[in-house]
Amino acid sequence: MADPAPASLPPKRPLRQDGVLKADLCIIGAGSGGLSVAAGAVQMGASVVLIEKGEMGGDCLNTGCVPSKALIAAAHAAQAVRDGQRFGVHAAEPEIRFEEVHAHVHGVIGAIAPHDSVERFERLGVHVIKAAARFLDRDTVEAGGETILARRFVIATGSRAAVPPIPGLSDAGYLTNESVFELRERPEHLIIVGGGPIGIEMAQSFRRLGSRVTVIETFGILARDEPEAVEVVRAALLRDGVTLLEKVGISDVRRDGPVVTVTLDGDSAVGRCVAGSHLLVAAGRRPNVENLGLDAAGVAFAPKGITVDARLRTSNRRIFAIGDVSGGPQFTHIAGYHAGIVIRNALFGLPAKVDYTALPWVTYADPELAHAGLTEAQARKGGHDVQILTWSFALNDRAQAERATEGLAKVVLGRKGRILGATIVGPRAGELIGTWALAIASRLRIGAVASAVLPYPTLSEISKRAAGSYYTPKLFGSATRRVVGFVQRFLR
Fold this sequence. Notes:
- Residues 360-466 form the Pyridine nucleotide-disulphide oxidoreductase dimerisation domain.
- Belongs to the class-I pyridine nucleotide-disulfide oxidoreductase family.
- By secondary structure, the chain is α/β, with parallel strands linked by helices.
- The chain folds into three domains: 15-56 and 117-161 and 286-348, FAD/NAD(P)-binding domain; 169-283, FAD/NAD(P)-binding domain, CATH 3.50.50; 360-475, Enolase-like, domain 1.
- It is 33% helix and 24% strand.
- It has 17 helices and 24 strands.
- The strands form six sheets. Strands 1, 2, 3, 4, 5, 6, 7 and 19 form an eight-stranded mixed beta sheet that branches. The chain has a five-stranded antiparallel beta sheet with strand order 20-21-24-23-22, with helices on both faces.
- 44% of the residues are buried.
């Protein structure tokens, strides 16, 4: 988030005329995207009204990115104790005090919350209304008894966990990301419906914190990622003791006291049952479009979200939609990216458009799986002349020193060495993928990464080594040998 504006530049505030609040910009939703727009716009001189009916910071701070990564950190700490013997450091099985894990997770949320608070944004000059919002017409919103008239509106209401229509699920009870981080006692056996990034991250974390875990996935886990990289993560999950049931459906769910039973469906599992103590649904997200008065505002929407153009404008050109609710990629960093697009459009009238060419994402398993740009399958489907480069973490000296040699870097190239995409699965892959995201966004060729001078020994060298392998056939081929032999005849 941007820093507070200098005191010498007092913020422009909304005006109240005839009982109506008038502002340059009205934002509905104080999650990552909405807060970014509000902070940026008010510090650039716009008057801003921000409306939020729930917790400031939205899903990311309270029930998503922040608590999940805090839980993952606790799971990493537990696993580090178990893995110490690789380095000659021996310890007993760690004692997991789940109440203290819960306190750690919520302590992290509490440490970040002031940055997203009502008080901070009001100090910036934003008029914050804590209430539900709905459009009265194409240019008016009502919230908390206030009527707001604005030049432009931004809908940033995010998404929530999608609940599949499984017979008995509602009666049996289940957890989602909105409730799983409230657990104060460790689940004995956690059944997870969904093998996407959220399901996989939670599966490994709870397993490392001492729970039995079973993942049920209709297709294959992490279906959007490169198959070679997924295999590395799958092997790690199985080694940790996570049970993976892939290409399996669910026919019904029932609860008998403390036991929840899931009946499986599918060619290999029809009639088979899995019994556990808790059930977590992690089967995708649904946009929050209900009760906003979108019809009154002339805003078109569909089950996947609000319909927007490349400038994130809705069918009502004075209203923008950003983040998960806009039906695009559902990542916090995309909501922040959308905020910049909207600010350029709404405040400066510039025709800024979204471009997902270099879109990165990370699954924070151990090892991490990170990706940017096109996968190999996408590149081939797009008609590119594809060349693939790979490099193993086993050939990286820092990875060897840390005994973290599982994984690889895979780079997808087009004609003349243009970088189209990259995947890294391995230690701190989420930190390493930034090099490739920048290279793709800048339309660089592979030589730019191959010629970089990187510190030794670091994990980042895997990118340079993968890039350098592009030149290996020519550099060490017969033609080079002939040239070197010829030149050496004349050198003194």
